Backbone:
């Protein structure tokens, strides 16, 4: 069971959230070429280590959060608002 | 001429009376007849929304996880720049009309979309705790607190009113009957009494 | 390395079982091979077996980080079937199922193939239509499929809750040739089969780097030294992105957790493989009597090989809704595997931008049933340096070129497939 420390609601169980995937992907401008969109949609780092990812607090405040979580230990290092810049520890 | 009274969203099982275990202190359940309006402020419009609600109802808009209670009326924080304003039922739509709204403040009548059940009694916290993942201990969840969470797969706002403890539960109306089903099961071991809607 | 037979079994019975020898060798790595397969799971072993058997390439090494049979080939729910909608999938999986049907004779090894039938339940009119369409697509491609109504399902599987208030069972799509096989036995049988054809199966040999010269591979660095080969196949589903990145190749895959469960053993109650149509849940009964079941992914990127409680609770909820008797059983074991999830739910068996480097991965949670077909197609791809028609669509480029094979229609979200 993950416990996610929502900056708005406090620490809540994973069951209140929906996963939203890699939070480092940046949408290219609409006039971007196919390669840029391929990278945005499909090209993932899939790190075995720290992963920056989106979680939606869907059964809570309904805000998108940026979570830094370890993909082997499942430890959550930080939870930030969607607009915050976060730092990711080295693997 | 007034509109006919709305049907209870809690369905036919919400029959007034005493149920479950006999003896002890029953948990009291009362459907509250209220108007509910959602207020959402756009970018940099929180202060403007606060003034709007203050002028219309006298309520201050609370910060995260908090509820502002004044008599029968309350304002609940639901999300950043989002609140519910609740007060005893009046003429349908009147509260929303009074609040008005503007380009940067959305006011939406939720009188049909959501409903409120008051739960009070010494065991009320234990009844909720069986299905809630939120810590409801008074040390971390004192009166005036609100938590939105999921109970039996249904999104519920739990508003703590006093130390009895009493709670107002704000529910989506279309799941109210299913929620009551869960609640009755959870409360059966303590005994519970369904009161007429008030 | 003699053949197994009933006469042999009888003779060993009389000799107190003293005449059995090890089923495959435990060689040290040679300095060079014609082909290196990274990964000694089902797919890696099958690839080496078919390279030797179908293409006469026997100077092959299979490099396994740990021991044979301890990865996903020993962590699945053992279901084999070919009941897919799209021809790119159903023709491929049908080839695999046909290989399964002859695998025990091929390998001289009992993999306990049991064609008990796979039933996908439907719970609504629209779902019936979707299954009718899927069944028609299968039949058009020569695969057996039969749409059952409620009473026909009840006759086959009376223990289900047909009148569940939310999800009453209306019927099912059955593939009678589908079923289960013993997962460990498949790994052992393929290892023995490949070994007998001359393949070196090298255990406790972790690949730590892939050496390139210009645009082609020349060998691998391992914990047991450098090994050269002009052709290298990656078959390490769960860690495909990690291994491919050693050669500078990025693969559109995310790794996710999938759990499985076994109950205590009970008398026979379930003669088929049954899948719930109102959630992601599938169940069968093993020959030992345990009910083997699983559900969906835990839902977030992970390499942990252990599942967490929210998904376990969800899977068991689904199981009890489908089959109420489950509520009276204890779960004996629970485990998890790391899934290579692609962005359309369909695997990769293909060449890469680096010459001599091939990838077999992205098995999502359909890897076990694909083992022989995947090995057969991958062997062809490596041997001929071009894909077979059956795996021609399973490329990396399909994502760039718009050739997604999205069986479920879930969109480019690996954790939803």
Residues:
């Amino acid at each position: 069971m993950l416990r996610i420390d929502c900056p708005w609601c406090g620490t809540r169980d994973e069951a209140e959230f929906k996963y939203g995937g890699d939070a480092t992907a940046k949408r290219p401008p609409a006039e971007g070429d196919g390669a840029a969109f391929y990278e945005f949609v499909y090209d993932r780092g899939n790190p075995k280590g720290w992963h920056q990812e989106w979680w939606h607090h869907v059964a809570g405040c309904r805000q998108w959060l940026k979570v830094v979580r370890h993909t082997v230990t499942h430890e959550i290092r930080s939870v930030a608002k969607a607009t915050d810049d976060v730092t990711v520890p080295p693997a | 001429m007034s509109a006919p009274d709305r049907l209870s969203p809690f369905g036919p099982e919400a029959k007034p009376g005493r149920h479950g275990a006999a003896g002890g202190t029953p948990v009291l359940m009362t459907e509250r007849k209220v108007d509910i309006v959602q207020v959402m402020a756009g970018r940099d419009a929180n202060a403007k929304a606060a003034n709007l609600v203050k002028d219309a109802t006298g309520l201050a808009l609370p910060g995260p996880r908090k509820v502002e209670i004044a008599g029968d009326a309350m304002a609940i924080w639901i999300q950043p720049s989002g609140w519910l304003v609740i007060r005893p039922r009046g003429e349908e739509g009147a509260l929303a009309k009074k609040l008005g709204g503007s380009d940067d403040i959305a006011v939406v009548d939720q009188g049909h979309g959501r409903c409120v059940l008051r739960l009070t009694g010494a065991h009320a916290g234990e009844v909720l705790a069986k299905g809630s993942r939120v810590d409801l201990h008074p040390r971390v969840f004192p009166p005036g607190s609100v938590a939105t969470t999921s109970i039996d797969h249904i999104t519920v706002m739990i508003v703590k009113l006093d130390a009895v403890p009493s709670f107002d539960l704000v529910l989506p109306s279309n799941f109210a009957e299913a929620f009551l089903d869960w609640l009755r099961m959870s409360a059966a071991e303590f005994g519970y009494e369904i009161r007429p809607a008030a | 390395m003699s053949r197994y037979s009933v006469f042999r079994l009888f003779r060993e019975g009389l000799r107190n079982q003293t005449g059995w020898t090890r089923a495959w060798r435990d060689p040290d790595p040679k300095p060079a091979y014609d082909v290196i397969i990274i990964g000694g799971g089902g797919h890696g072993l099958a690839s080496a077996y078919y390279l030797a058997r179908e293409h006469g390439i026997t100077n092959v090494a299979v490099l396994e980080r740990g021991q044979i049979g301890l990865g996903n080939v020993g962590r699945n729910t053992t279901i084999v079937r070919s009941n897919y909608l799209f021809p790119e999938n159903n023709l491929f999986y049908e080839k695999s199922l046909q290989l399964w049907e002859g695998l025990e004779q091929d390998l001289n090894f009992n993999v306990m193939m049991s064609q008990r039938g796979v039933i996908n339940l439907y719970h609504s009119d629209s779902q019936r239509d979707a299954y009718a369409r899927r069944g028609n697509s299968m039949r058009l491609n020569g695969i057996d499929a039969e749409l059952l109504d409620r009473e026909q399902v009840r006759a086959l599987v009376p223990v289900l809750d047909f009148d569940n208030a939310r999800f009453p069972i209306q019927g099912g799509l059955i593939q009678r040739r589908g079923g289960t096989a013993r997962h460990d036995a498949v790994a052992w049988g393929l290892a023995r089969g490949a070994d007998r054809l001359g393949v070196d199966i090298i255990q406790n040999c972790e690949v730590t780097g892939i050496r390139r010269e210009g645009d082609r591979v020349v060998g691998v660095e391992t914990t047991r030294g450098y090994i050269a080969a002009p052709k290298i196949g990656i078959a390490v589903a769960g860690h495909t992105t990690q291994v491919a990145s050693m050669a500078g190749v990025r693969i559109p895959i995310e790794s996710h957790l999938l759990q499985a469960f076994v109950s205590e053993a009970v008398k026979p109650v379930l003669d088929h493989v049954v899948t719930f149509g109102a959630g992601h849940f599938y169940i069968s009964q093993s020959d030992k009597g345990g009910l083997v079941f699983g559900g969906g992914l835990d839902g977030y990127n992970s390499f942990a090989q252990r599942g967490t409680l929210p998904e376990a609770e969800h899977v068991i909820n689904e199981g009890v809704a489908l089959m109420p008797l489950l509520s009276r059983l204890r779960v004996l074991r629970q485990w998890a595997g790391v899934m290579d999830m692609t962005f359309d739910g369909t695997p990769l068996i293909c060449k890469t931008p680096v010459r001599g480097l091939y990838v077999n991965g992205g098995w999502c949670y359909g890897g076990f049933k694909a083992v022989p077909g995947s090995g057969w197609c991958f062997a062809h791809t490596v041997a001929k340096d071009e894909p077979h028609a059956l795996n021609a669509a399973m490329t990396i480029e399909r994502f760039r070129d718009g050739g997604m094979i999205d069986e479920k229609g879930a969109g480019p979200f690996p954790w939803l497939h």
